């Protein structure tokens, strides 16, 4: 099997699975309990919080655990909006955000908030100058993803941070789900960023666990009412085994990030150079430093993305029709439409997403299978 769908989810490292199992069996207390077992669970929970904070260059009290990226995005978008609604109801997000952000924004729109969508250029980057013109006195939140999940474009977070420096009362949120472990933290977490969302299963941790970064002193309303865990902001008993395992996964990923990225860059370059030679292939991702090394999206003219995905699956190679969250629902890649790509062409898009488990032998096998499929579908393309 060749698994090229790592932007959808990654396989947990064996060491991470072992940590999860060990903590599940040995740390049985509830962190909120007063007895010794509860204190033991609380200590390991806080140790994990400290480790994650250090890995991303933040303070432990700025890390809050969640169930993953969707909850993290929902919490920040809605929680900040509810907290700051007395100051204004205007929110800016980009036109290429993940559904967890866009659907949260649409839900707020029904409650009287005004949502503006910052456009992107033909390469898929938010146009900084355009967004700057959209800022108003009643703007309370700007939310921009760090790395686009459909084509891998690294958004100009630092430039946007510079723009928003003139508007210190506007909260700045970054969806960093596809960025952590792939690009340098300083690129997507400059000082001006107030909130950021993360999901464990994107970096070899368990599914169903994630965290947010909330800058010290920034306010957010809780979405869950209950026992007051996570300093009264996110009620529900913490998933201690998954959190400890996530901290370990992040440590492992960050330790080898530069080495892994060199390998990913080489693999992406090899695939890109092979695909670009074919006249009916359209490359939606660019092979430059402005794109993440782990995502490459392309299409074959005249062949719908889902057809291509299943064609590769017959050879035990697994790709995705861009966002996994939208592919099963049959939705067209929203990023490509926002970039001005024609609908018929956007429907051809498939995404390769690599990680450290992949190797050059798999790349060569993929290209062999691609050539076979490309030739086989020549009459359909014609």
UniProtKB/TrEMBL annotation:
Q: Show the GO MF annotations.
A: catalytic activity; iron-sulfur cluster binding; metal ion binding
**Keywords assigned:** Iron, Iron-sulfur, Metal-binding, Pyridoxal phosphate
Q: Where is the Aminotransferase class V domain?
A: 2-366
Q: Which Pfam families match?
A: Aminotran_5 (PF00266)
Q: Where is the signal peptide?
A: none
Gene3D superfamilies for this protein: 1.10.260.50, Aspartate Aminotransferase, domain 1 (3.90.1150.10), Type I PLP-dependent aspartate aminotransferase-like (Major domain) (3.40.640.10)
What are the names of the required cofactors?
Answer: pyridoxal 5'-phosphate
Family, per entry: Belongs to the class-V pyridoxal-phosphate-dependent aminotransferase family. NifS/IscS subfamily.
Q: What is this protein called?
A: Cysteine desulfurase
């Amino acid at each position: 099997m060749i698994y090229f769908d790592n932007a959808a989810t990654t396989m947990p490292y064996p060491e991470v699975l072992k940590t999860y199992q060990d903590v599940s069996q040995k740390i049985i207390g509830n962190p909120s309990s007063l007895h010794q077992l509860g204190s033991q669970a609380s200590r390991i929970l806080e140790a994990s919080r400290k480790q994650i904070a250090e890995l991303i260059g933040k303070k432990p009290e700025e890390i809050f655990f969640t169930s993953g990226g969707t909850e993290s995005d929902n919490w920040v978008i809605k929680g900040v909006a509810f907290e700051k609604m007395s100051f204004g109801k205007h929110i800016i997000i980009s036109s290429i955000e993940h559904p967890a952000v866009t659907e949260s924004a649409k839900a707020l729109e029904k409650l009287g908030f005004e949502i503006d969508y910052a456009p992107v250029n033909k390469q898929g980057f938010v146009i900084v100058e355009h967004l700057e013109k959209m800022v108003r006195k009643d703007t309370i939140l700007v939310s921009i993803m760090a790395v686009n999940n459909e084509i891998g474009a690294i958004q100009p977070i630092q430039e946007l941070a510079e723009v928003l420096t003139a508007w210190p009362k506007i909260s700045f949120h970054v969806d960093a789900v596809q960025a952590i472990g792939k690009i340098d933290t300083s690129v997507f977490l400059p000082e001006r960023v107030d909130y950021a969302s993360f999901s464990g299963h994107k970096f070899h941790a368990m599914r169903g666990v994630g965290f947010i970064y909330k800058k010290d002193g920034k306010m957010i309303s809780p979405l869950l009412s209950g026992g007051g865990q996570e300093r009264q902001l996110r009620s529900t008993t913490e998933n201690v085994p998954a959190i400890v395992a996530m901290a370990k996964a992040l440590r492992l990923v960050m330790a080898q990030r530069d080495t892994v990225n060199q390998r990913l860059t080489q693999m992406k370059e090899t695939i890109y150079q092979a695909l670009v030679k074919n006249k009916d292939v359209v490359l939606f991702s660019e092979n430059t430093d402005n794109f993440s090394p782990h995502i490459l999206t392309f299409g074959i003219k005249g062949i719908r993305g889902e057809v291509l995905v299943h064609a590769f699956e017959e050879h035990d190679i697994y790709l995705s029709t861009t966002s996994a969250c939208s592919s099963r629902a049959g939705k067209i890649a929203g990023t490509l439409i926002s970039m001005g790509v024609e609908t018929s062409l956007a429907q051809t898009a498939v995404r390769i997403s690599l990680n450290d488990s992949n190797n050059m032998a798999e790349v060569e096998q993929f290209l062999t299978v691609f050539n076979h499929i490309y030739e086989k579908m020549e009459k359909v393309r014609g």
